[in-house]
Amino acid sequence: QLQLVESGGRLVQPGGSLRLSCATSGLTLDYYSIAWFRQAPGKEREWVLCMSSDGGITNFADSVKGRFTIYRDNAKNTVYLQMNSLKPEDTAVYYCAADRMGYIVPGCRSQEYDYEYWGQGTRVTVSS
In whole angstroms, what is the distance from residue 117 CA to residue 128 CA? Predict the structure, then answer.
């Protein structure tokens, strides 16, 4: 059974750093694009960034460009979201998602409907 499990969310001060993990099972990362989305209180879920199935392409939302990055450890079947220079507006529940068409579609996609598999989310709060 394919599963995505996020972890690492917590309270962090503005300007701080945090790494979120997305542990996967039941899939091979080489065949799936992976994205991170987030949903802030009272707002719709939004795309944050993604990585192509071969790991060679990453795309970022303008709001996180230069501060966030995504990388993966194939041996651990885990994808990471490294967040630096955190701002209060980064406060949200963060979700990882997998696109099973990732080995066919070039690059990676930014629409929720392109991702078939989702984790349960992990909460990040940026506050002093």
Answer: 34
3-state secondary structure string across 52-116: CCCCCCEEECCCCCCCEEEEEEHHHCEEEEEECCCCHHHCEEEEEEEECCCCCCCCCCCCHHHCC
Low-confidence ranges of the chain (pLDDT < 70): none
Residues 32 and 54: their CA atoms lie apart, in Å, by 8
22: tokens are 């997305």
Structure tokens at 42: 């009272």
8 Å CB contact between 106 and 44: no
Where do we find the tokens 């071969």? 54
What are 74-100's pLDDT values in tens digits? 999 999 999 999 999 999 999 999 999
d(CA 114, CA 3): 17
